[in-house]
Design brief:
Spore Coat Polysaccharide Biosynthesis Protein SpsA, Chain A; seven-stranded mixed sheet; alpha/beta; 258 residues
């Protein structure tokens, strides 16, 4: 709880048995998280079994693998059903430190922002933290292009460490986004489309064998998806083409609040 706001951490999980407990313990050590929701995307290991033994954790098992985006859609739906005021996505692979949860929650809980991102780029330590150079340069090129098309000034669009207000999640038509990795990018573009401000805080980077990461081929597919989303956003902004993802009723729907 932050002030009178319920904080729910969601974990989209897939084969995370080796790092789940460490991540969970650090999440709960922050002292402000009311509930953890772990959605297991048909893992081949004991991720869900381990999660069910942890306190203050609600486990949901997908009968089949729905993909990273499809899994997140369930995460946010369940969090809203639990009455969450602040929802923070933390990957159970321990790539992002849960120690930033209080800071992220405070930015939303004090009604300054509807969305907060943990940026691996701010601070300039991404490569020193283990991010592969090809991934770093791909991140920088994509971010530059997206800032141009979306009219924003974010340090990166590709972090998986994100916090949202209840009001924002209730507005976003997440069902109109894909079920794969590009979901993250489409969701963030929708948030920018609403007109609300997005905050970023510097997040230490950790890369190790157990941390999940998409390979080069999937990174290329993801990059093309990001550029397609940016072009769709830009053409919708110019009124050249319509888009269900970037609809007129969603545009600037939260710009007056934060």
């Amino acid at each position: 709880m932050y002030k009178d706001k319920k904080i729910v951490v969601v974990m989209p999980a897939y084969n995370a048995e080796k790092t789940l407990v460490q991540t969970y313990e650090e999440v709960m050590a922050q002292g402000c998280v009311d509930l953890v929701i772990l959605v297991d995307d048909a893992s081949r290991d004991k991720t869900a079994d381990i999660a069910e033994k942890l306190e203050k954790v609600r486990v949901f098992r997908n009968e089949k693998n729905l993909g990273y985006g499809g899994n997140q859609k369930i995460c946010y739906r369940l969090a809203l059903e639990e009455g969450a005021d602040i929802v923070i996505m933390v990957h159970p692979d321990y790539q992002y430190t849960p120690k930033l949860i209080p800071a992220m929650a405070s930015l939303i809980g004090n009604e300054l922002y509807h969305c907060v991102l943990g940026s691996r780029i701010l601070g300039g330590y991404a490569v020193k933290g283990g991010m592969p150079r090809w991934k770093y340069y791909n991140n920088r090129i994509l971010t530059l292009a997206e800032n141009v098309f979306l009219g924003a000034k974010l340090s990166e669009y590709h972090t998986g460490y994100r916090a949202f207000s209840r009001e924002l999640l209730l507005k976003l038509p997440l069902d109109r986004n894909g079920d794969d990795f590009v979901f993250d990018n489409q969701m963030l573009a929708q948030i920018i489309w609403t007109g609300c401000k997005v905050a970023e805080i510097s997040c230490p980077t950790k890369y190790f064998p157990e941390a999940s990461s998409i390979n080069f081929t999937n990174s290329v597919i993801y990059g093309l998806g990001c550029m397609s989303t940016s072009l769709e956003f830009y053409l919708s902004k110019l009124g050249i083409s319509g888009s269900r993802r970037f609809s007129a009723e969603l545009k600037n729907c939260l710009s007056e609040s934060k």
